[in-house]
Amino acid sequence: MIGPMDLQLNERVFIVSGGSRGLGFATAEVLVAEGAKVVLIGRTEATLTAAAADLGHDNALPLTGDLTDPDLPGRAVASAAARFGRLDGAMISTGGPPASRASDTSDEAWRDAFESVFLPPLRLARTVADNLAGGDTPQGTRDGSILIVLSTSVYRPLTSLALSNGLRPGLANMVRDLAMDWGTHGVRVNGIAPGRIATDRVFALDARSGSPEAVRRKREARIPLGRYGDPAEFGRMATFLLSPAASYISGAIVPVDGGATYID
Ligand SMILES: NC(=O)c1ccc[n+]([C@@H]2O[C@H](COP(=O)([O-])OP(=O)(O)OC[C@H]3O[C@@H](n4cnc5c(N)ncnc54)[C@H](OP(=O)(O)O)[C@@H]3O)[C@@H](O)[C@H]2O)c1
Question: Quick one: which of 7, 226, 235, 237 could link to 243 by a disulfide (CB 3.0–4.6 Å)?
């Protein structure tokens, strides 16, 4: 008989990049609440240290660094091993690209965005997957899980987010490609596509056009559930996908968008 749902996250260890705020931190909160440990990555030491303290020093190790640094993934994997003695996967979030229209985005902006939005998640995923597939884990199984934060721009273009519209569909395809490469090594790779989740980044984007309240009301009117998502709602889905409870889900891109993606 099938038993109750158990996320089986107790004592598992995950790298959470972009972990000091927003979607990354919300996921870290749920992971820790479910018994997991996290290595949190972010650039701003003070914010990162405070976030790790909120999660409890026994549960969270802060690792200050910039994901555009090619050495950071290796440091993160080594930190997980040194502090917690194992690694089970990664939740990969990072800062989003600046707003711009397709018609006025410069070559330089495209190159910068490739270096900050596309390559760092791919590099971290590769390094973590290599590590997960490369040896016997203390728990005796290879059931690693990697989750990359994308955007609903993978389904259709978002107004004034040309860099996301151009790069994230490619990253979504890399999620599927990595899932093919690593599946037989027991490593699942998935993507998660937030719509409008109430984080600092979304508030900043809304404030660009004048009244953030008016922008929010207008956007909420186009979401079937009629509201922005709470970071915890994102964090719960991310945690499920990272957990062994999602053991037959790989190469999927899961929207967390209140139903907004498929309405016109
Ligand atoms: N919120 C949404 O509804 C939504 C929707 C679609 C897509 N997304 C995407 O999801 C991602 C996260 O969004 P969010 O709302 O959580 O953003 P956020 O609130 O701005 O948080 C971003 C996090 O990433 C860290 N970070 C940024 N750049 C970094 C870098 N180069 N190296 C290491 N850490 C870095 C930030 O800390 P530091 O600044 O201290 O480094 C922070 O912890 C973004 O890529 C965004 O475009 C979000």
Answer: 7
The alpha carbon of 101 and the centre of ligand 1 are apart by a number of angstroms equal to 20
Which residue is listed with tokens 């099938």? 2
- Ligand 1 pocket check: which of 47, 48, 114, 199 to mutate, most ligand atoms within 8 Å of Cβ? 199
| CATH architecture, domain 13-256 | 3-Layer(aba) Sandwich (3.40)
pLDDT confidence of residue 183: 94
Of 130, 166, 132, nearest to 151 by C-alpha is 166
Among protein residues, the one whose CA lies closest to atom 25 of ligand 1: 18
Q: Which portions of the chain are predicted below pLDDT 70?
A: 135-141, 264
Q: pLDDT digits over 141-177, tens only?
A: 578 999 999 999 999 999 999 999 999 999 999 999 9
Residue 145 CA: distances (Å) to CA of 96, 106, 158: 23, 36, 28
Nearest CA to ligand 1 atom 45: 96
**Ligand 1 atom with the shortest distance to the CA of 152:** 6
